[in-house]
Design a protein that fits this description.
Blueprint (H helix, E strand, L loop, with lengths): L13 E5 L4 H13 L1 E7 L5 H12 L3 E4 L5 E6 L11 E2 L4 H11 L4 E6 L10 H9 L3 E4 H4 L1 E8 L6 E3 L5 H13 L2 E6 L7 H8 L4 E4 L2 E6 L7 E3 L4 H13 L4 E8 L6 H8 L3 E10 L2 E9 L20 H9 L3 E5 L12 H11 L3 E5 L2 E6 L6 E4 L4 H11 L6 E4 L11 H8 L6
Helix pairs in contact: 1-2, 1-3, 1-7, 2-3, 3-6, 4-6, 8-10, 8-12, 10-11, 10-12
Length: 434
């Protein structure tokens, strides 16, 4: 017998909350601190599994790290002289950032470094970073000529070169800049468009001479960063789920404090404002070269609007929750220029279109994106996250406005980046106290 629909109580998101430390910045802070000579202090480190993988990788290379339960770490770097061949394979788990960025360091360490990962990571493309590192003299091998894990790195001397990337990628750029710091000569990375610039900002804050001109960034090597004393700002990609939740749940008026508002990370806010979102951003200071601020969000009636494909790479990780917002916007929202979603933790385009359809929305997949047509009432249903943390949290946001519960399979994947998600959401709704 078909179950009748019921109306859920929709609790607005109000008050002031914070989100965990930025995942991208946390990765970079650990690696920069490992390369420095002396003790670095990093506060507000992201607590997710991806960052824990990078922390373990740094330790495997011989760096001593002390950490506590308050997401604060002390990294005792000894420069390149303190890095050594690991005693066994470095397991990156599900973290592509760990493998791709650490490759730039491992390529300069004498000896053998082997990177492995889980089943999902073992099918994700690596040649995009392996090939340019080979141009610098790195000796890297793996399945499919270095396209797939496991990857075997025989480290040694690197030389600076000019490298033109076919696709803008902060992870590839980061690996090459780290390698450039350890190489002899100038390394220049030329991208076809903008990508996240956390690495350039952090290296500059640590005293490394980084030259930026348009979409070209250069570093002379060898030079090592100075020790860091930095607090990691809140993660914009984590804040994105709460931003969209507050927009969709009537009566919401939520302020998210101490969020990193780097211009290369706020593309989602621009896209949502184009859809009619009431979002106010107030810069309150800087941390490690990164602008930090508060984001106030009020529930809003949205209309469909298609973001510029050239801007999509700057908020590629926020596309899943943008797609959920689009289900509640009047008219069509077409997202193009997002082919990178096909090779994330899962094929996010397929996962989103299938999930949106299952909960009563209207979505059509394209090779490089999707079209979502709204506004559509959403219903309770079973949705498979396919083990992708951002897909899982996006459908949790959809569940806030669906007529019944959305049950999300493989929810534990949220530990990758935002294990505190349900607690933070509960505080925003007044169901939990701090």
């Amino acid at each position: 017998m078909r179950r009748g629909r019921r109306t859920k109580t929709r609790l607005p998101l109000t008050g002031r909350i914070s989100v965990p430390g930025d995942k991208s910045i946390s990765h970079r802070a650990l690696i920069v601190a490992a390369l420095a000579e002396g003790r670095s202090s990093v506060r507000g480190l992201n607590s997710g599994a991806d960052v824990r993988a990078t922390l373990a990788a740094v330790e495997a290379l011989g760096v001593r790290v002390a950490y506590d339960d308050n997401y604060q770490v002390q990294v005792y770097g000894e420069g390149m002289g303190g890095l050594r061949e690991p005693g066994g394979p470095i397991d990156a788990g599900n973290s592509g950032t760990t493998v791709r960025t650490m490759l730039g360091v491992a390529a300069a360490i004498e000896g053998l470094t082997v990177f492995i990962g889980d089943r999902s990571l073992s099918e994700r493309p690596m040649l995009r970073v392996v090939a340019p590192l080979r141009q610098m003299g790195a000796r890297i091998d793996g399945r499919a000529n270095g396209e797939l894990l496991p990857l075997v790195v025989r480290g040694g001397a690197l030389r600076g070169v000019d490298i033109e990337l076919s696709v803008a990628s902060a992870q590839v750029k980061t690996a090459l800049l780290f390698a450039g710091c350890l190489a002899t000569g100038t390394t220049s990375v030329i991208e076809p468009g903008p990508s996240r610039d956390h690495t350039e900002r952090m290296l500059s804050a640590a005293g490394v001479a980084v030259v930026r001109s348009g979409t070209t960034v250069s570093v002379d090597g060898p030079q090592l960063p100075a020790p860091l004393n930095v607090r990691v700002p809140g993660d914009m990609s984590s804040a994105a789920f709460l931003i969209v939740a507050a927009l969709l749940v009537e009566g919401s008026d939520l302020t998210i404090e101490d969020v990193g508002i780097n211009p290369t990370r706020t593309g989602l806010i621009d896209a949502l404002r184009a859809m009619g979102a009431d979002i106010e951003v107030i810069e309150t200071g800087t941390e490690g070269g990164e602008p930090v601020g508060s984001i106030r969000v009020r529930s809003s009636a949205l209309v469909g609007a298609s973001p510029d494909p050239a801007a999509v790479p700057t908020f590629i990780d926020e596309i899943p929750v943008l797609a959920i917002a689009a289900t509640q916007a009047e008219g069509e929202t077409t997202i193009r220029g997002a082919s990178e979603l096909r090779v994330k933790e899962t094929d996010r385009i397929s996962a989103l279109v299938e999930g949106i359809t299952a909960i009563g929305g209207r979505a059509e997949a394209h090779p490089d994106g999707m079209t979502v047509t709204g506004s559509t009432p959403l219903r309770g249903a079973d949705v498979d996250s396919l083990g992708d943390h951002r897909v899982a949290m996006a459908f949790a946001v959809a569940g806030l406005v669906a007529d019944d519960n959305i049950r999300i399979a493989k929810w534990s994947c949220v530990d990758t980046s935002f294990p505190e998600f349900l607690d933070v959401l509960g505080r925003a709704q007044g169901r939990l106290t701090a």
